[in-house]
Amino acid sequence: MKYPVTVYGDPLLRKKAKPIEKDHDGLEEIIENMWETMYHSDGVGLAAPQVGMSIRIFVVDATSGADEEPELKDFKKVFINPEIIEKSGEEWVMNEGCLSLPEIREDVKRPDIVRVKYFDENFTLHEEVLKGYAGRIFQHEYDHLDGILFIDYLSPLKKRLLKGKLRNIATGKVQPHYRIKTPVKSM
Question: Which of 45, 99, 103, 118 has CB 3.0 to 4.6 Å from 141, enough for a Cys bridge?
Answer without folding.
Answer: 45
